[in-house]
Each structure stands twice: as C-alpha cells, then as structure tokens.
Write a structure and sequence with these properties.
The chain is an alpha+beta fold. The chain has two domains: 3-94, no CATH class; 112-237, no CATH class. Helices cover 44% and strands 15% of the residues. A hairpin with a 5-residue loop joins β6 (112-114) and β7. The longest helix has 22 residues, at 49-70.
Length: 240
C-alpha cells in the first residue's frame, strides 16, 4: 500500500484551523515542517499521483464548502502537489503549479443551528465538520447543498432549500423545528420577488410579491445555514 499525502495551499489563517477538525484515519490534515498535508483513506488504493490529485480536489471542494458553513470568513484552500512516502522513507513529490495571492485579516464566525423555538444557537464545531465532509463524499444531495450554499447568492440559497425540501419535505422542516413557518415563508417570498431583490431574485414576474419585511441576505444565509446543519444531522442519524 502506498502512503500518499497531498500538500495544501492557502492562507495560514485558514490552514492552521484545519488539523484539529480533521484527524481521523478516514480523513486527516497534518502539519509537517511548516506545510499542511491532506491524508485520506480514499488514496490508499490509488497508484498514480494524478489519481490522488483528482481524488484530493474532489475532497477539498467539499471541505471548502463545509468550512464556509462553519465559518463565513473561511477562504478556499487548494492542492499544491502530491507526496508519495515509500516504506523506506524515500519521498517523491509531484508538483502542479498555480499561483494566487491575497491579503486579509482574521474575522471568525461559528456555525449556527435553528432550535424549535426559532432561536439560532451555536452548533458544536470540532465534532461536526469532518462528519459533514465524510457524509457529503457519499451523499450527493449533501454535497450539492454545501456546494450551493458556498456560491452565496439568493438563487443558490433557494436551491439549498429546494434540495432539503425535496429530500424530506417542507412539513418535516417545520415540524422538526428546523424553521418557523412564518420565517420560511418570509425567506421564499423575498427570494422570489424581483421587487425585493431586483435581478438577484429567483423570478422576474411582478406576481411574486415581497413580504412586508424582506429578509436581508445575511439573515437569509444564516437562516438557510441553520436548516442545512439540522438536515445534515438528521441524515447522519437517519431517523426519517
């Protein structure tokens, strides 16, 4: 069995928070000699560096989306080469060049979940994010929902809601306490109304009237993010 590691590229702000979140045999991120590496059991059966890189890119895409759900200030990381560690300790590194430079300061946020009474609470972080990634790797609906949340538009937020609604139904969303019916209606009416959002709206028809108090985008993203976290938790325990 070959021991593959994929070096990660990104800002130290983002990379340094990952090792405590991903530390299982299935998926882990380690720091070694100042660099960060992704290790996954998905790599174990692969024989070529290009295959490992392709697998890593898919994992990193899901990881980036999950991290945005946890921390809105998180910036994407990417692969920065594939390292093969032989049994005798010999190392062979395959590098794929791509450059990206940016400057920013740290601002952190924590994931939120919606309780039955409609109050948003901080969800546990360290025990959740890795499980979100592992679930999304095997469940396309979860991967798609995280993908659209990360896009960060009104239309993409509505797509997240549609994915969840198609999976469990709007009644379960409401009856399980993921969202209050009135707030869910306020979100959908805002998202669909061109009068409220202009060209960002899901529809152009004037028949789509806005609610009396349209949602702000920040409020909508937090609202849908809370529903998404609860839905993922529901899928993990498979009670519906």
């Amino acid at each position: 069995m070959k021991n593959w590691l994929v070096r990660l590229k990104g800002e130290e702000f983002d990379l340094e928070i990952l090792p405590p979140l991903f530390h299982s045999t299935q998926l882990s991120i380690i720091k070694e000699n100042g660099s960060y590496y992704l290790k996954s059991s998905d790599f174990d059966s692969l024989k070529l560096a290009d295959e490992v890189r392709e697998s890593a890119i898919a994992i990193i895409e899901i990881l980036n989306s999950a991290m945005v759900l946890s921390n809105h200030n998180f910036h994407d990381i990417s692969e920065d080469g594939v390292l093969l560690v032989e049994k005798n300790g010999k190392r062979c590194f395959s590098l794929y060049l791509e450059e990206s430079i940016g400057i920013r300061s740290r601002v952190s946020t924590k994931p939120k979940a919606t309780t039955p009474d409609g109050i948003q609470q901080i969800a546990p972080q360290h025990s959740n994010i890795e499980s979100w990634v592992n679930l999304a790797k095997n469940d396309k609906t979860v991967a798609d929902a995280l993908h659209f949340l990360k896009k960060g538009t009104w239309i993409s937020l509505y797509k997240v809601y549609e994915i969840i609604k198609d999976d469990i139904g709007s009644d379960v969303i409401i009856n399980s306490g993921f969202a209050k019916k009135t707030k869910l209606r306020r979100f959908t009416q805002t998202a669909q109304s061109r009068l409220a959002l202009g060209d960002e709206a899901r529809h152009a028809s004037k028949k789509c009237r806005p609610p009396a108090k349209p949602m702000t985008f920040i409020e909508a993203k937090s609202f849908i993010g809370g529903i998404l976290i609860n839905w993922i938790c529901l899928k993990k325990i498979n009670i519906y």
